[in-house]
Amino acid sequence: MKLFRIRGGVHPEERKEATAQRPIEAVPLPALLRIPLQQHIGAPAEPVVRMGERVLKGQLLANSQGMISAPVHAPTSGRIVRIGGYTAPHPSGLPVRTITLEPDGKDQWIGLEGVDNPFALEPEAISARVAAAGIVGMGGATFPAAVKLNLRRRYRLRLLVINGAECEPYLTCDDRLMQEQAAEVVDGIRIMAHALGVTRALVAIEDNKPRAQEAMRMACQGDPVVSVAGVPTRYPMGSEKHLVQALTGLETPARGLTADIGVVVHNAATAFTVHEAIRFGKPLLERVVTVSGGAVHTPRNLRILLGTPVEHLLKLCGGTTAEPERLLSGGPMMGQVLPSVRVPVVKGCNGILALTSDEVRSEHAMPCIRCASCVGACPCGLVPLEMAAYIRAGDLEGAARFGLADCIACGSCAYVCPSRIPLVQYFNHAKGEVAARERTRVKQEETRRLAAQKSERLERMAQAKREALARRKAEMAARKQAEAEARA
Description:
This protein is α/β, with parallel strands linked by helices and 488 residues long. Helix content is 34%, strand content 17%. The protein is globular and about 115 Å long. 45% of the residues are buried.
């Protein structure tokens, strides 16, 4: 098929060879599972279990709150030993509400109810089952998958794109999943296409994954809906807007959705999870994770239960050969620094990287030399050097005029910067500050609105009292007048 050129992008060292040939392996149960109630974009889930309660594998632990939320389930059978704050798998290291489960070793399932023929279900029934299973975007975005499946209500959709690019260095979990369980992934794709009401689905896989391309082509051979498209190996090809542009030539409107141009994007691992949920009734309890990096003794691809501590995975990989200079969740370009090895793996974690000092660029930042390398690398067509200059000057409005809100934080600009300026950190800081100012503005406006409403209410009450007093005075005057006339 014809592919379209996208602007910018970079070619970082892939470093996938350590795990690309390693099959997915199951891991033994850890002593404790820490299950955060916020593993998705939106409102955290609300617990429906109590401390000391015994639960079965797949049992609901916490229910979703609102439309943009997702429930969490017990990854195995055991006993709830704690519900409270625990260190989040986030650079802040702040505690988040977490359910701690002590496995009993039985791995006993709750009763499951699958569907033999998902294509006989109404689209609403499929999205409802996906929502109940707690499925979110498995590529790292963690947006509730059911919300995307319901986009057919608001948009005229024509294409489902499955993101199998996996463009981040080191990561090979999606590559291995597509190689080893291609039929299940394709089945999940067909189910999602049915739910979205589209008759065409494209699986986009970078050209550096020929075995995954071959396996997926074999799995969808003769399928009237699903086909495979090889895309160039170029970071950030996995960005959904750029992937859609490469496949269709259509550009997503600024601050818009790909659904605005009739396309919905899901991850390959999400498709596999949808297959498991619809066919067998299994909620999202586990995922495949790549454990790699120069500090890892034996890098591997592991199928792990959600809530498994990072230190458990590192031990299964033979431990570390040296103290990691940086511990990441996800890839080195967009991954998040982890505060410690004690944090758990969550739904959106596709990799654990323990990087050495040789793998981490830690040079001191130098002044910008205005070489514009960042401009050429930006896939969004922005001017990072100007945005950074405005941010350093404290002029966030100026940075916004140069497209701060359109930055996808892919890190391409920082990767090519010869002065080693931490551009992404500037942009993320500025976005956070802009968001904080917007929240303050909204809060102030709401406070003024409530104050105005209160003043109006008090004024109405005072006016009502004045009118009531005037009526009573008039009634008394009329009564006195009548009495005087009667006496006369």
